[in-house]
Amino acid sequence: MASVRAGTGAAVRLAVEGPAEAPVIRVGAAESGAAAEAVLARAEALTAEDAAVRCIRVEAADDVSRSLIGLGAARRAPAGVEILPGLLWQCAARWLPEPRPPFPEIHTVTEGRRHPLRPEAPEGTVYARRIPWLGRTLTFRTLTEPGDAALFSRWMNEPRVAEVWAEAGSLAAHEAYLARLRADPHQLTLFGCLDGVPFGYFELYWARESRLGAHYEAEPYDRGWHVAIGEADIRGRAHLSAWLPSLMHYLFLDEPRTRRIVGEPRADHAQQLRNLAGSGFGPLATVDFPHKRAVLVALGRERFVRDRLWVPGAAAADARPRPPDVQA
Q: What integer pLDDT is reported at residue 3 of this predicted model?
């Protein structure tokens, strides 16, 4: 057995055996919380780049097995417990530093549109994931640190970003822009970071009460997003396959009732449309706004989980066949 360290710093001895599509993790004696965390970290590593893993059997003490089941990452099986990738990657506690329970559902009306009352926006780091093919840690955090507005302003004035966003302007104008969004409970602004260094800006919104909600039959918990990658060295396939599925992953984890994520890229932005298609999004309609013609695209939770779209290339036409559906 190899010794690994859980996030608590405790050493846990693990062994991984068996075929790649159905490995077995054997766990040595350890405190149940630390052991469960170490097992989840190893299971994440086994499934982060390989969509062919069908299940991961865990041989561990009963308290460790109960912890894994209680977290929602595993189920009981004839020979102990097994982690299913589709369960694991919907286990919010693995990637959200402070996972929130679903906000109680009561409805309100915004500009004539009935929708669930939204929770208060989170603060700080909301998501963290180790990206093995980059050897770096990706995080999403709110814009609450000194210098964030100045960095946002620099990016908005970068010609490539300004061409799409049309938000070039002064620092004062951008500070007012961000303050307006912070005061809006229907939107959330985030920076994407690699090893703590910001590389891009993201606006997340609830679709039903957004401008897009008037153009399609939005479900109560549909989420939408806009992106500006500010740092040129982060553009490219390797980085796209890290931040884009991770952002979708965050949206699905943050609200378990979210069944669909939508977007509204410019209809003439061929590269972005290709990137979205290669990440599992499909077109629903063409929408005309005063400032642009857009393609309404959508990604469903079922497809994200079933096709393992956190794995690079999993949505490609020539991707390896996914495992068969889970047996009851």
A: 60
Helix (H) or strand (E) holding 159: helix 159-165
Neighbours of 242 (CB within 10 A): 22
Whether residue 8 is predicted with pLDDT greater than 70 in this model: the reply is no
Distance CA 54, CA 282 (A): 26
What is the C-alpha end-to-end distance of the chain, expressed in Å?
Answer: 32
Active site residues: 264
Q: Let me know: does 67 contact 74? Beta carbons within 8 Å.
A: no
pTM of the model: 0.95
Identify whether the C-beta of residue 92 lies closer than 8 Å to the C-beta of residue 253: yes
Q: pLDDT tens for residues 67-103?
A: 999 999 999 988 789 999 999 999 999 999 999 999 9
State pLDDT tens for residues 283-298: 999 999 988 899 999 9
Owner of token pair 């957004």: 210
Instruction: Report in angstroms the alpha-carbon separations of 37 from 88, 92, 280.
Output: 12, 13, 30
Contacts of range 129-132, beta carbons closer than 8 Å, 24 or more positions apart: 129/95, 129/246, 129/249, 130/44, 130/48, 131/194, 131/242, 131/246, 132/45, 132/48, 132/49
Going by C-alpha positions, the residue among 250, 249, 141 that lies closest to residue 194 is: 141
What is the three-state SS of 229-252?
Answer: ECCHHHCCHHHHHHHHHHHHHHHH
Three-state SS at 107: strand
Write the CA distances from 137 to 127, 157, 193, integer angstroms.
10, 27, 8
